[in-house]
Amino acid sequence: MLTKEEKKNWCSVHLPGGNNLNRVKVDAIFISIANSKPHEMKKCELCYDLKKMGNHFVTECVPNNDKKRRWDVFDITEGEIYEVVADHESHEEVKKYREVGIHPIIVNPMTCKMCGQKYPKRSESTVCQICKRTKK
Fold first, then answer.
1. Tens of pLDDT, residues 6-35
2. Do 51 and 45 form a contact (C-beta atoms < 8 A)?
């Protein structure tokens, strides 16, 4: 049974291609073959961890107020949004996720030695693209 807050969060999203009358199934993991297998496995791992904590979640959902976006995982218990990030996404995109309150879950992470943030490992470098630019 969902709490009042969980139900409110759940009702704030819908299925891709649908509208706010099309609800996403709670605690079910939906995969997209457009994503890589490591991406989808990381999403499954995150959902497993959320469920183990007793949280409810929805996957591959679209917020009712922004049909251009799609969230990988929405923790409806805590109201937190997670985006699984693969190595094709830039460090700037990851930074933008953080700035708007989306938690990036990085498939193959590296920790920047300058700022301490985690970003997708795109090369053998241990400094993120953002710190490299500001260092110049």
1. 999 999 999 887 776 778 899 999 998 888
2. no
